[in-house]
Design brief:
The chain contains seven helices and seven strands, in the order ααβαβαββαββαβα. The protein is an alpha/beta fold.
């Protein structure tokens, strides 16, 4: 079977647990695309892919799901088709939306076993985290991977123990305002931002830092769901 190599590492019981697990991935770009595909390839049986964007040419340098053929296409629908080409039995729900306060009721967080926040919007990230905490659902939130060159300083830790990352600093402040000082798992980079030119509206990016971040997020989720988070 296509899962045999994973079975050799995790075992039958863990694979069965993954097949019956429900995970939502918010954001299918440089980080989320890799996280989503790794979850599919790991045998997670029920995944909701959430993204209201379409692929454009600037995504080609780092986003796994971005190809010349997918330019102009919905990221969520592209993710669904990609997942089905890997595991036809996977139950994939594509939500073509930018999650925000205006459509917050469209997602029932209590339906999931784990949530991956791989989006850029601070207000939406805060909303996802708050809703997950309220529903008692584990969440891992990705901090900034833009303007990063080295994947080795990527870390998974509690938001209260993050440093260096400008986005993590903003998130710590905003969560504190909402009465949340710790208890939120995040993926962040301890590398100082890199820039070789004048400041731009959008951050620079590489092919490897966002991708490594997405794979680490998927690893955290899979090991947690499989009862192997001590590995």
């Amino acid at each position: 079977m296509w899962t045999d190599r994973t079975r050799m590492v995790l075992g039958d019981a863990a694979l069965e647990k993954l097949e019956n697990s429900r995970v939502a991935v918010f954001g299918l770009g440089g980080v989320g695309g890799y996280a989503f595909e790794a979850l599919v390839r790991s045998g997670v049986g029920h995944i909701t892919a959430v993204d209201g964007d379409v692929f454009d040419e600037t995504n080609l340098n780092r986003q796994l799901l971005a190809t010349r053929e997918s330019l102009g296409r919905s990221k969520a629908e592209t993710a669904l088709l990609r997942a089905k080409s890997i595991n036809p039995d996977a139950d994939i729900t594509a939500l073509d939306l930018f999650y925000c306060s205006g459509n917050a009721d469209s997602v029932d967080f209590s339906a999931y076993d784990y949530v991956a926040d791989c989006i850029d919007s601070v207000s939406s990230k805060l909303l996802i985290i708050q809703n997950c905490l309220q529903a008692g659902v584990p969440v891992i939130s990705c901090m900034g991977t833009g303007n990063k060159l080295d994947p080795s300083p990527l870390r998974v830790d509690d938001i209260s123990r993050t440093s260096v990352c400008p986005l993590a600093r903003v998130m710590r402040r905003e969560l504190r305002v909402r009465g949340i000082e710790k208890g939120v798992k995040v993926l962040y980079s301890a590398e100082a931002p890199v820039s070789v030119g004048e400041k731009q509206r959008s951050p620079g990016s590489t092919a490897f830092v966002p991708g490594c971040a997405g794979l680490m997020i998927a690893s955290e989720i899979v090991r947690s769901l499989a009862g192997r988070s001590d590995v």
